[in-house]
Design brief:
112 residues; mainly alpha; two-stranded antiparallel ribbon; HTH-like domain-containing protein
């Protein structure tokens, strides 16, 4: 289930502000399995932000985990969240949305 990604492992070993981040392969594999489980339980909808929130809530090990680590883990597993953009009517769509005649001749009055 969890595939090792050479690029991802190299990224985790980069220096950040004078400190080297080193995560053991066992930690990375465990994180990958947990991310994959949450991802599939959500119906492949949750992205890295919500998965990070759920990991912090459910596991004390991941209270301060960065969103970048979750994104890297998802990228190595080739997981992507499902995003559907909201419909916004533009010029072309407004031409399709025509005003039709009031065939029922209904008049709605405000009774005071």
């Amino acid at each position: 289930m969890y595939q090792k990604c050479v690029v991802c492992l190299a990224y985790l070993e980069l220096c950040t502000i004078g400190k080297t981040i080193r995560h053991t392969p066992e930690e990375q594999a465990l994180l990958g399995r947990r991310v994959l489980r949450i991802y599939h339980e959500s119906g492949r909808i949750y992205g890295a932000g919500k998965i990070r929130y759920l990991l912090a809530q459910n596991y004390s090990d991941y209270r301060k985990i960065s969103i970048e680590r979750i994104q890297i883990s998802m990228k190595c597993q080739k997981n992507r969240s499902i995003v559907i953009k909201k419909f916004k009517a533009d010029k072309h769509a407004k031409k399709l949305l025509k005003n039709y005649q009031n065939l029922l001749k209904q008049v709605f009055l405000l009774l005071v």
